[in-house]
Structures are given as C-alpha cells and as structure tokens.
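Sequence, structure tokens reproduced for reference:
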Amino acid sequence: VIGSNIFNILLVIATPAIIAPMRLDPLVFSRDYLAMLFLTLALAVLLLTKYLWGIKNNRPAKLGLTAGLLMAFYYIAYIIALMP
C-alpha cells in the first residue's frame, strides 16, 4: 500500500502534469491527500503493532478481521464524504 501510494504520487499523477499542466481544486489537497496520508499511517501503525506483538508472543504477524473491518469502514466513510 505504501509503495502504491508513492508510485501514484510520483508517476501516475506527475506524468499527466508534465504533458499538460492543469489547475487542481484545493479540495484535492485538503481532503484527498490527507485521507490517503491518514489511511496509510493507520495501516502502518496496525502493521507495526501486529508485527511487534507477533515477535513478543512468537506468533506470525497477521492482520485480523477487526483491522480489515476498520480499514473498510474508513474507506466507506471516505466514499460517502465524496458524495454531494
């Protein structure tokens, strides 16, 4: 996910801007990038805590149903926020 976000920012968004520069609505930066940053950091925290917990308890680090539902809830909330 983190690598995908970096790829999207550096290549997918930058390439059309080089070909045909355009103006972006400031809402893109205040809403979309902040949402992407928040969800990326939330996933990183979930993965880090699961990894450290797995090392402490000598178990594999896997995200469970709760973490998946939490991320799905944030995604659905973001989609609802996009609706006019």
Observations:
- The mean pLDDT is 83.
- The first helix runs from residue 2 to 12.
- Helices lie at 2-12, 14-19, 26-57, 65-82.
